[in-house]
What does this fold into?
Amino acid sequence: MTRILAVANQKGGVGKTTTAINLAACLAELHKRVLLLDLDPQANATSGLGFERIPGGSLYEVLLGEKNLGDQIKPTAVPRLDLVPSETDLCGAEIEVARLDRPLYRLRDALRPLADENRYHFILTDCPPSLGLLTMNALAAAHALFIPLQCEYYALEGLSTLDRVLADIRQNGINPTLEIAGIVMTMFDGRTNLAQQVVAEVRRHFGERVFETVIPRSVRLSEAPGFGQPIILFDPQGSGAQTYRALARELLKKERAR
Amino acid sequence: MTRILAVANQKGGVGKTTTAINLAACLAELHKRVLLLDLDPQANATSGLGFERIPGGSLYEVLLGEKNLGDQIKPTAVPRLDLVPSETDLCGAEIEVARLDRPLYRLRDALRPLADENRYHFILTDCPPSLGLLTMNALAAAHALFIPLQCEYYALEGLSTLDRVLADIRQNGINPTLEIAGIVMTMFDGRTNLAQQVVAEVRRHFGERVFETVIPRSVRLSEAPGFGQPIILFDPQGSGAQTYRALARELLKKERAR
Ligand SMILES: Nc1ncnc2c1ncn2[C@@H]1O[C@H](COP(=O)(O)OP(=O)(O)OP(=O)(O)O)[C@@H](O)[C@H]1O
Ligand SMILES: Nc1ncnc2c1ncn2[C@@H]1O[C@H](COP(=O)(O)OP(=O)(O)OP(=O)(O)O)[C@@H](O)[C@H]1O
Ligand SMILES: [Mg+2]
Ligand SMILES: [Mg+2]
It folds into this structure.
């Protein structure tokens, strides 16, 4: 059964793309077949995996119902990891999709054949920093929401908004079974009180839903995208690769226990 | 003559809010009268200055033409600095404004009486991390675009998109005289090669338009919002306050030389 995860948080710069790329790569390393969807017009997951934006190659025409999702899939440098890249046109998707029939379910409908084929163990969606129609499509299509959270005050503040939106999506029937796959703390700098306070606060409110694995601030993680590589190729033995591997193992454990 | 600056960058987490709050406070400290508009539904500039979200207190009804901007203005703890706070409803503004007449000029029209009164030397707009209708309203209303840029690869990548959008706004007549007030490098960590490379690259491409002042990574800057204070009140003698003061002085110098 293909498990669809939306990597989302409306707060900007919290590590969504870094987590989507590196979690996907580490799951592939653990012999899972993974598809990463770049749903952000910024196309960071696309360049972070070494791809250029390809006009006509994104989810844009898929959301408009003019192309099949399967035709947009590209293999990456990581075995068992495929990507649907983004493109600039995706910027216009929100306004165009709003005018169509079933605007919230365009991605869900497009993913259905792929999910039924069980071609992938996981499909991950990298979302833009907003709660607009692109992110809402990802939340409507997903089984669970994977929340990267920076160890900072503004990120903590945004979590209550995200929690409310999630409850709303369940209650108003957009996606009644949408769960939280987990919250992963990112860019943790143990030397600052602020980071420790934020982690303690999040664990107090969200308990089990917070991954044990905490991603440290590591300059290698921010250098890797410049070389178009996930961290397991760019710096395979470093702390970034080790902690994202631990995160992937912890996710698989949680999924088995479901 | 009131100078209107949009603090914008579609890349998330680059320091837009931190720069909008602290530059505004430092300009007020230099005896300029400043109004800060929180145009981001996340309302970070609102909480960063110690305010709660106030239902009905934001730019939401102003953009819909149902309220005057002047009625939403609140004084802050900093003399000569006023704020128009954000609220959750602002989330829905983009879809609603899209249906109205002159969707791109709602903010510009609302600001005109205030700008004509010359009540403020500067009006700064904190924008959300996207190029949707809220940010476009800010760009259509502004005299100049103030771009905070994190010293990271993805942020650098996003700059070319922003530059293209700016050229587009000028050429297609939305705002033919929109300039770049400047690019300020943020969260600079001199110990990493990446930060130095990004700064060098940006200076090479954008030359004079990049401020000399570089904002260092400083934990005090990320702690201040938790206390609802700008850095000049939270840690007045620290590196964060000193560099934002230098940025304010450099901006005033550039403005005088215009
Ligand atoms: N653990 C980490 N250590 C150091 N740098 C990191 C880490 N995680 C992410 N970064 C860097 O921080 C910046 C923000 O991360 P990223 O772009 O992944 O966030 P995002 O949530 O996807 O941003 P956006 O909201 O714009 O989509 C990037 O420049 C990235 O390289
Ligand atoms: N110079 C700095 N040193 C350390 N931390 C900083 C600095 N500038 C900003 N921060 C912190 O980095 C995070 C991102 O900054 P901020 O929220 O201002 O960016 P933004 O561009 O407004 O984000 P968004 O795209 O979500 O609106 C915040 O938690 C902030 O406190
Ligand atoms: Mg991203
Ligand atoms: Mg902000």
